[in-house]
Amino acid sequence: MGKAERLEKMLDLIQNSNFISPVELAEKMNVSLVTIRRDLKKLADQKSIIKEYSTIKIARDYDKRFHERLNTNLEQKRMIAELAKKFVQSGDTIFLDTSTTCYEFARTLALSSHNLHIITNNIYMAVELMSMYKIDLVLIGGNIRHGYFSTIGPLAEKMLSHIKVTKFFFSCTMLDTKGIYESNVMEGNIKVKMFENSRLHYLLVDSSKFNKASVFRTTSIENLDAVITDKPLPNEYHDMLKKKNIEIITPLKMD
Q: How many Å apart are CA 12 and CA 24, to the nearest integer?
């Protein structure tokens, strides 16, 4: 078992337990207590968990399910969706990920006059778009990720490997200067496939997600074509993106 998979399994065990101790985690995962403590420190540093005395619990804002996230930062998501639509033209074939930001983006596209080909692994989004006859919609099959309205797993990845598109619009759990992260390895693998099979990559991300890292890195910053966000970027990110010729789109400024 790789480190990323071990961290994800640990998070699942913590999330499904009211209270769990490091000793119990070591027993359930069949690894040493030293390894567990090292992994817990990493998760705590990422703000994925909270350690309280001898027990551990999931951080309140970590990995919320789809319905819990729908109304979080809703105004910012809608603002980002409006900014992102400038990158879409009629006839485009695009990937949309399973994020709630891309769900708002899909709703914005549904109101446009564009004829589009949209491929997604977001079941909730597919239901929203299925009555829009100007949109040629493909829902990726696979295993259902319960509570998240997404499809994941080997079947989904295999299906994606046969699809090529021009543009990929996506969000993330967190990002820092080293990369873009997901909290779930299997969800991250889907995004990796979408990256591999698309030519242009647009990150739709609100300002609350910067300067944080999570379990699974999907790609590095340099692989982006544009970052679309709700506020001017911190200088560190602005300068880095400009050096890499990555377009920056905010409500106040377009670089």
A: 14
Task: Outline where DSSP puts E strands in 60-219.
Answer: 93-96, 116-120, 135-139, 143-145, 150-152, 165-170, 174-176, 179-182, 198-204, 216-219
Locate CATH 1.10.10.10 in the chain.
3-58
pTM summary value: 0.76
Residue 24: CB atoms within 10 A of its CB come to 15
**If residue 227 lies in a helix (H) or strand (E), which one and from where to where?**
strand 226-228
- 171-181 residue pLDDT tens: 998 898 989 99
Top CATH class of 3-58 equals mainly alpha
77 vs 229: CA distance, rounded Å: 9
Measured distance CA(154)–CA(19) in Å, rounded: 32
| Distance between CA atoms of residues 155 and 160, nearest Å | 9
pLDDT, tens digit (0-9, with 9 covering 90-100), for 1-37: 677 778 777 777 776 665 678 888 888 888 898 888 8
- Which two three-digit tokens encode residue 40? 């817990």
Strand order in the sheet with 116-120: 135-139, 116-120, 93-96, 165-170, 198-204, 226-228, 247-249
CA distance 72 to 10: 26
- Of 49, 76, 12, residue with least CA distance to 209: 76
Pick the CATH number of 67-249 from 1.10.287.990, 3.10.20.600, 3.40.50.1360, 3.60.150.10: 3.40.50.1360
CA 42 – CA 3 distance, rounded (Å): 11
Q: Within the chain, which residue ranges are assigned CATH 3.40.50.1360?
A: 67-249
